[in-house]
Amino acid sequence: MPFKDSKIMPVNSEGRMGESNEKINSKMFEKKNNQTEEAGTGQYSDLVVRAGLAEYSDVRGCMIIKPYGYSIWEKMQAVLDKMFKDTGHTNAYFPLFIPKSYFSREASHVEGFAKECAVVTHYRLKNTADGSGVEVDPDAKLEEELVIRPTSETIIWNSYKKWIQSYRDLPLLINQWANVVRWEMRTRLFLRTTEFLWQEGHTAHATKQEAVEEAETMLDVYARFAEDFMAMSVLKGKKTPYERFAGAEETYCIEALMLDGKGLQAGTSHFLGQNFARAFDVKFSTKEGTQDFVWATSWGVSTRLIGGLVLVHSDEKGLCLPPKLAPIQVIIVPVYKKDEEKLPVDSVCREMLLKLKEEGIDAAYDHSDTRSPGWKFSEYELKGVPLRIVVGPKDVANKTFEIVRRDTREKSFVPVQNLLSAVKDLLQKVQENLFRKSVEFREKNTTVEENYSHFREVIEERGGFILAHWDGTAETEKKIKEETKATIRLIPFGDQEPGKCIVSGNPSTGRVVFARAY
Amino acid sequence: MPFKDSKIMPVNSEGRMGESNEKINSKMFEKKNNQTEEAGTGQYSDLVVRAGLAEYSDVRGCMIIKPYGYSIWEKMQAVLDKMFKDTGHTNAYFPLFIPKSYFSREASHVEGFAKECAVVTHYRLKNTADGSGVEVDPDAKLEEELVIRPTSETIIWNSYKKWIQSYRDLPLLINQWANVVRWEMRTRLFLRTTEFLWQEGHTAHATKQEAVEEAETMLDVYARFAEDFMAMSVLKGKKTPYERFAGAEETYCIEALMLDGKGLQAGTSHFLGQNFARAFDVKFSTKEGTQDFVWATSWGVSTRLIGGLVLVHSDEKGLCLPPKLAPIQVIIVPVYKKDEEKLPVDSVCREMLLKLKEEGIDAAYDHSDTRSPGWKFSEYELKGVPLRIVVGPKDVANKTFEIVRRDTREKSFVPVQNLLSAVKDLLQKVQENLFRKSVEFREKNTTVEENYSHFREVIEERGGFILAHWDGTAETEKKIKEETKATIRLIPFGDQEPGKCIVSGNPSTGRVVFARAY
Prior knowledge:
Two copies of one chain form a homodimer. The first copy, chain A, contains 13 helices and 27 strands. With 518 residues, chain A is an alpha+beta fold. In chain A, the strands form seven sheets. Chain A has an eleven-stranded mixed beta sheet with strand order 3-9-10-16-13-12-11-24-27-23-22, sandwiched between helices. In chain A, helix 2 packs across helix 5 (208-229). Chain A is globular and about 80 Å long. Chain A starts with 42 loop residues before the first helix and ends with a strand. In chain A, 51% of the residues are buried. The interface between A and B is large, with 64 and 64 residues.
């Protein structure tokens, strides 16, 4: 029952907040006075930069993913890629460039995607007349401008037209790992950047039912990844028509609650109906010999998930990475004062490193002479390394070592002979504890509101997820968004209790989840 | 001694050609009359398309890498990535966009790279007045144009400036897996496309010697990959100044000989001196307390390698993939006539599939009812699957199966109980045989020429690698290129025998390798 905990179970229906570490810390990731995220000075960006995950480049809104941040992405990719392949998908690669005219094919898609994007108009630079630099060669203007892909439905469906003739060619289950570009006005490292890395699945099916099931299956894959690997509790549901992907008939999503009380959309899976098949004229001969348009899905997660890890597990010391995705799972730090103590301590540390690595544990040994143990402790806490092993001369004598959990900061002393079992056991405990805390946090900070003025108070003062009745109209949805900055994050799956809209008083078929969101 | 065979050892110094399958087939990959590669109709492109590796997109010179082709790239990536990590490198990700002005910083780099490239000038589209489509919004013009990276030295060294202060920050050993764009006038699937996928390593060092050693180490990694995994014999050496990477002080390369007698540059590793450090003002404090510019290397291989696999191992039946990189290593095909034979045959095939997969062998079972066994045999030969297992009713009765090698087309009958050992043994034999053939082919088709008119005859009539004396001037190099279309592929490492240039008669310090090349 991997998703049991992600069902909506507000344990506290009066809206009271939990205590201690389950409380929303609305200042946790706030921006500093008069400083913009773009400059990398907000608390969140500051943490991302200090932990060595990423930094802004000189190119507006584009980030540099540094080795430590990229290692997390590699671990995420490895897990997700396996999950995709285990569900029958293969990878392919489609061009970065999309002819401008493709965007005009699917009416709502063009509204959503063809606007804020990078446009290539020329294919050559030349030396300036004064020889000081280069300039765009006006003679090298493209006949049709090319858009850098903001998402690849159009270029992929243009290919699917050639690949699909018969029901025998279906289903077509393809995924792509790629970079995409959306010209965002306000950017934040990982959460919203002009260029980002992602995967986009694009599937084609013979029946509506099969396509809907595919979209649901991939949402389940995302939810399982979020919970079992990121240790991040998520809600599952569908978007309102207003919040839907441009061109989709239904958008399913997973939504997580960040420590500052804001929601984060962590993955979406779209049932696209026959919209793209119609736009690109992709028909197939059915088993019965008739012709029909193909049914489609698309689904994606991105480097935004790394931002989610930061916003859901950090504390005042820095990151707190779930062991299953931590680039370094165990850091070994030697502690000695006298020169003659160095050699025996170093020798024990190296032996431990080797043993851990042989077991496939991502251990590292920081034997640098230029940094003090105290500096190292802080540094690896900042970087969120799940376990720290400390070895000093006394430990060498006693054949023990100290091991410290990053999540609870609990210390224990362990006999060297129990190294592997202790490390494995603690890694699992940290993973489980982070997830348990994330579930409790979401539950404690999910409230049910029946009254709009109280709703506004809660949104303003403490955030979190709010379950409230809504009349199903875009009008009410927009009014709430304008007045409170809260949006409908999702409509929960399954039967809900009917009621009356907290704004209009009109009938509601069930409560939906509101939050301010990233 | 992994590179023993890649030393230049022309076994046949009179220039006689080898026989049978070691002979150059200059018609093998020729273009059909009046047909362009762009249309995908040349023999090479035709094979790439028919085998399901890739196809052209509607966007000029951009290809779609189809699942089968992408699987080869994934296998290449996995091996190379491990080799990079084993030699101390980590991955990171830098932006797709490079501000135009960056290219002006390094004088020779701008000449080489800032010319034929995709330029982003605008960041928004808007609806046309008549509502029929979208057009570039003239109000959304960028202040400074952005170039889509053709290679990332400039944007990466702009970051290294911030990352490197002291010798303690060195060496910095970073690799990036990315897409790059070069606006090529003539394109060929995999070999030369406008957009391609590659990896680019960018390292920074405290000393010249360390940087040179790094560039050499990475060339060795590439050579080992080409020979041990691609089963493709390569020569190692350095480029002439004229053929060097723009901005490099020395370019090392591996060069392979294709079945049609043309050379293929399969990987390059550049010693960049202090050029980029000077251009981006990257200095560091040395151990001695002085300030110095940082020393640099860069190195890369690309999806072009997939083209190399096609051009070096194919025959009249199609591809012939080396087992270590084949997406499908073993294809199982059932053969039966009567309905009642289907079940027992199917059951044995499924059991075999499971056993092979459990051993980590990439096996597949084609149980499709809509295609005949004969069609399947041809299809998997075309796709270059190294081994084919055929199971019929007689095999079921005899507890045997038929196994056929793709490279030699030899058949054997094997008891089912020997499945794993037979498959493993044959996979290794196919891998070794492909490499051995590649070495022999290169050796047989490498000639030594002392006379320019004979040189021209050989180039024109049969191609291959030609070892000849050259006076070291760009003038002679260009003359030969213009008159014969042959270029200097590399200057071999190590001491060479001095002599006289075949064109000018001036002194030469040693023979260099000429060929017409892709």
